[in-house]
Amino acid sequence: MAAKLMGRIVQEVNDLSSNEKLVLIVLANYFNTDRDKAFPSQETIAKNSSLSRSSVVRALDELRSKGYITIKKRRRSGQFSHNVYKIHLVSVNGSLV
Predict the structure, then answer these.
(1) CA distance 76 to 22
(2) Better pLDDT: 76 or 39
(3) What is the DSSP letter of 17?
(4) What's the angle, vertex CA 5, arms to CA 37 and CA 32, rounded to 5?
(5) Burial class (CB in 10 A: 0-12, 13-18, 19+), 13
(6) What confidence category does residue 34 fall into, taking pLDDT thresholds of 50, 70 and 90?
(7) Do 89 and 2 touch, CB atoms closer than 8 A?
(8) How far is residue 69's CA from residue 61's CA, in Å, rounded to a whole number?
(9) What count of other Cβ atoms lies within 10 Å of the Cβ of residue 1?
(10) Helix, strand, coil percent values for the chain (each to nearest 5)
């Protein structure tokens, strides 16, 4: 499913900057179909995309504001643990993928 999702992003998503699209592709690469989410660290996204962490943070913020992703912050023992990302793409019939 991750490869199919990455292919859809490459072929169908045309309204993002190159950094935003690259970050979305990296998120898709980590997408877990059983859990319907991705949870790579910002450091992992930066390493995989060859972007700085600040560029990744800006791209994530833009992707969230444009409706491509939802970000939930997970906490463990009262401390920040990690982000969980859900990817939203519209399919041909109009439903979200």
Answers:
(1) 29
(2) 39
(3) -
(4) 25
(5) middle
(6) confident
(7) no
(8) 9
(9) 12
(10) 45, 25, 30
pLDDT given for residue 73 in this prediction? 85
CA distances from 87 to 14, 57, 73, 79 (A): 16, 16, 15, 25
* Amino acid letter, 45: I
Q: pLDDT tens digit string along 41-92?
A: 999 999 999 999 999 999 999 999 999 999 998 766 666 678 999 999 864 4
The pairing of strands 69-76 and 79-87 is antiparallel
Residue 34 CB partners (closer than 8 Å, separation 6+): none
